[in-house]
Amino acid sequence: MRYSALKILKEGLTGNKGWKPVWREPEPKKEYDVIIIGGGGHGLATAYYLSKVYGVTNVAVLEKGWIGSGNVGRNTTIIRSNYMLPGNQPFYEMSLKLWEGLEQDFNYNAMVSQRSILNLFHSDGQRDAFVRRANAMMLSDAGAELADAAQLRRELPFLDFDNARFPIKGGLYQRRGGTVRHDAVAWGFARGADMNGVDIIQNCEVTGFHIENGVCTGVETNKGPIKANKVASCVAGSSSRVMALAGMRLPIESHVLQAFVTEGLKPTLPGVITFGAGHFYVSQSDKGGLVFGGDIDGYNTYAQCGNLPVVEDVAEGGMAIMPMIGRARLLRSWGGLMDMSMDGSPFIDKTHVEGLFFNGGWCYGGFKATPASGYCYAHLLAKDEPHPNATEMRLDRFISGHIIDEKGQGNQPNLH
């Protein structure tokens, strides 16, 4: 079923009786060309591009829970490509360009809103670092704009420019950045993959791998064994547990990252704003709630909930740049499992087991990477070679010393 304004009008006039399920609920077949473990944004995007771009349609996506139950429905919805290093910038710019045409591509309203992202700076040294980043962004056609304090006072008068500890001296804009409805992204990719013939199998937990003589030939699940020519893991914070079933130890730790939303307020924030002297980022949803987050909780866990000290720390960061939110009531918070790599950058690569592939280590950056991650992972699975924009996202980069040191903090909470 194709969605259109005419279809909505017709259904509205006929009692909405013609709508069909967004995707099928098939039983798993005994064998597939490719099995993708994980029905989150990256796994579904991989299945979508694998079937649409590369013509591989005998594919199964195995999801332990339900579609949208993991990090793709637990993030703060931000998209951007304001990176600097060559291992990152082309990849995230590719992702942002895919976001810009995504809704038309898979015929689903994901509420892509390019409302801008602003990174505040608070010192001369930080300004110089942002100038370097802006130059790198301009070289990749990502777009960048340096704004001084006078410009920001005109555009965002509610910010605390004269804070005694963290005076706001300016900021780096990426006007093309913004937000997207996160769960709609999962639904749109799931629908698109299903339309191309991919089997999306929910409540199907992978409990083991079939590996013979160094070759992966399939997986064991709670629905029985399933054979495959290629198996692709894409399970975010559960990466270490899943890949341990194949005897692998990853350079990844799992940490919880909390997010928060306030009561609905009048339209205030025109875009996304980040605090340069701490870890705080905020945007305003279409319902009026302020959606924000900050640091990981700093301890290893597989629980999707956090602790109060980080709530206090994130609230302090918000108060430091805009004290006006001090009386806003916090409605709820939630947690997502971050697969934190040792250099803060991801992996899209083959493993030493033939036929077994890995995608993970996205740290804070997983949601905005969703389209490019899926596209590049699909390229790797179809071509057996990395996509040109993902050549540095290798599992062995710590052995060779070719780390992608964009922030240099990785999983270390004391460096955040």
What does this structure look like?
The chain is α/β, with parallel strands linked by helices and 416 residues long. The chain has eleven helices and 18 strands. Strands 1, 2, 8, 9, 10, 11, 17 and 18 form an eight-stranded mixed β-sheet that branches. It has an eight-stranded mixed β-sheet with strand order 5-6-4-13-14-15-12-16. Strands 3-7 form a two-stranded antiparallel sheet. Helix 2 runs parallel beside helix 7 (182-195) and helix 2 (41-52) crosses helix 10 (370-383). The longest helix is centred in the first third of the chain and has 16 residues, at 124-139. It is globular. The mean pLDDT is 95.
Short structural summary:
The chain is built from 11 helices and 18 strands. The protein is an alpha/beta fold. 49% of the residues are buried.
Task: Specify the overall morphology.
Answer: globular
**Major sheet attributes:** 8 strands, mixed
- The number of distinct helices, counting runs of at least 4 residues, comes to 11
Question: What is the share of helical residues?
Answer: 25-40%
Count all strands and give the number.
18
What structural class do helix, strand and pairing data support?
Answer: alpha/beta
Tell me the fraction of residues in β-strands, as a range: 25-35%
Weakly predicted, low-confidence segments: none
How far is it from the N-terminal to the C-terminal residue, by CA?
46 Å
Run of helices and strands: HEHEEHHEHEHEEHEEEEHEEEEHEEEHH
What is the mean predicted local confidence, pLDDT? 95
Rg to the nearest angstrom?
Answer: 22 Å
